[in-house]
Amino acid sequence: MTEPRRLRGHKATATCCIASRDKPGLVATSGEDGCICWFDMRCKDLKFVMDVSNEPISSLCFNSGNENIIYVSTGNEVKCFDVHTLADNSWKPLESYNYNKEEINQVTCNSRSSFLASADDGGEIKIIDICQKRIFKTLRAGHTSICSSVQFIPWRPWEIVTGGLDSKFIIWDFSKGCPSKIVDFGLPDMHSGSNAGQCLNPAFVHSVKVPDVDMLDKIGKICVVARGDGVIDVINTESELTATKPKSSTKSRKGTQSKGSDGGVPDENGRKWLHLDYSLGGHTAAVSCMTFSLFGEKGKFLVSGGNDKLVKVWDCSRCLGSWQTGDTNELLHLNINLTKKVNWLCTTPAESDNLVVCDTTKLVKVYTVS
Fold it and tell me: How many structural domains is the chain composed of?
C-alpha cells in the first residue's frame, strides 16, 4: 500500500466518518472536539468545519432521501442539521431529540427517511418518527448492557438489528417493540465455529452492518457482526428469522440438508453463518467497525477495522459462494497495516481515494483500494 492521504481539520481524535452516495468524494468526519469536518476528495483542503457541540460526537448519518440533512449524536442527544441552510459560524440545528437517557453510541436513518434509531449505553434503542418529530417506540428488555450498534433492515421495513456489549445480537420488530430473534455470543456453543484461541476474549458485539438494497443481488440478505474476540460473523438474516417460526409438519430426514432461498446450506443448528476468524486471515483483536464498499461493484467487498491496527478487505461475493460450496479460500482480498487502532471507516464511490479511516488520532487517513 502507498502512503495514505491525510485529512486535517480535527483538533482531537476523529470518531466517525460517512461518505455521500449522491455526491461521490464528499466525506464528513466527526471528532471528540465536537466538530464535523467536510472534505471533497477532489480538493486538497478542508471544505468547512461545523462546530456543533461541546461534547464528543459519537456518530453521524445522512438522511437517506436528502443528504443535505445530517444527523449527529453527541452525549444523549441527536441533532439534525440542514447543511445548505446554515449560515457561517451559526450551527443551529433544525431539530434536537433528547429521548435517550444515556450516552448514544450510534444513530442511523432508515432507507425511507421516515425513522431514526439511536442506541445508547443503557441498552435502549429509541425509534424516532422523523415526519412527526416525536418518539415512536422505545426498545428495551433486550440488551442487558451497552447497546453499541444499530441498523435498519432495508428489505424488512419494520425491523432493525442491534449489537451490544452483553454479547447479544438482536433482530427487533420495532412496530411491536419486541425482539424477533436473540443470539447470545457469550454462550459456550456459540464459540463452536471460532478459532479456539479467540474464545479467550469476550465476544462483545461492537458493530453490526446490513447491506443497502442495491447490494442485495450481489451478496444477499445478510447481516455482518463484528465481535470483541476478533471474529466477524456473516449471518443470513432470513434463515435466522425463519428458524424462529413454528416448524411445519414436514421434516427433513436425518442426515439430509435443506437449502434456503439463496442456496446456502445450513449448519447442524439450521443456521447459515460464515465465521471470518483468525484461521482465515482475520483479526487477532476486537473488530471495532465494518462497512460495505461503495466503489466498483457496490457491496462486493466488506471492509473491517480492529484493535489489532489492521484493516481487512473481504470479498463478499466469495463469501456468498462459500455458503454453497464450503470453500473458504481467498475470502481475504487485502490487508492494510496501520499504526493505530481503528475507530471508524467508510468508503466512497469516487474513482480514487476510496477508503477513509478514523483511527485514535486527529488525522483522518484515506487509502486507495484497487
Answer: 1
